[in-house]
Amino acid sequence: METVLKSFSLGFLLRSVFAGTFFVLTYSVATKCTPAEIQVNSGNLFSFGMVFALVAGVTVYGIHRSVIYPWFEWAIDADWAKRLRKRGATLISDNVIRELVSRWDRKTEKEQKHAKMHCRAEQITAWADFIHLQYTSAWCIIAGLWAGQIVGQPCHLRYWRLLIAIAGFFVIAATASTWRARSVEEYWPEPTPFQEQ
């Protein structure tokens, strides 16, 4: 159990609280029609709401990474997708890729090639963290609506279309960002001999 707890970095916990906040907000919207047994309000926002957001965010993130995202990953890493990106359907121009990589390489200007590649990998990992934040936020919106309908009495949600649209937007944005990140990873230029010195 200690190993699992140590794997939760501060950044991961903050991202989980952020995504879980969408769960708490949509849950609160879904239970407004009739009082539910579990309510989040201004009186218990920090004592209960933040803990609720953290637990929801971590749980939904785990489900996303183990059940949902492998299907997105399978499609994005499929041979047909790689061929599309190789033909230019990258959603990011070659100039932007070169500029991004150049910025990343400048962080390790005096280092060897392996240090530059390590820095690039760190940048892609940070990019991936934001991608998964968007996905997890989308699933938290949907899970919050679903949980609110189960815990409270089912009711007509005035804003459900807007909330589903926001969740859909997050999924589309995260998928586009994943596609762009894969494009950068697959086609970034190798460090030049000058950069390797």
How would you sum up this structure, described in words?
The protein has helices spanning 2-6, 10-30, 45-76, 79-86, 94-106, 113-151, 160-187, 193-196. It is an all-alpha fold and 197 residues long. The protein has one domain. The longest helix is centred in the last third of the chain and has 39 residues, at 113-151. Residues 192-197 have low confidence and may be disordered.
List keywords for this structure.
single chain; 197 residues; mainly alpha; elongated
SS strand fraction = under 5%
Number of domains: 1
Q: Uncertain segments of ≥5 residues (pLDDT<50)? A: 192-197
**Count of helical segments?**
8
Q: Roughly what percent helix?
A: over 70%
Radius of gyration, in Å, reads 21 Å
Shape: elongated
End-to-end Cα distance: 44 Å
Major beta sheet summary:
none
SS elements, strand count? 0
Q: Please tell me the overall pLDDT.
A: 84
Protein structure class: mainly alpha
Helix-strand pattern: HHHHHHHH
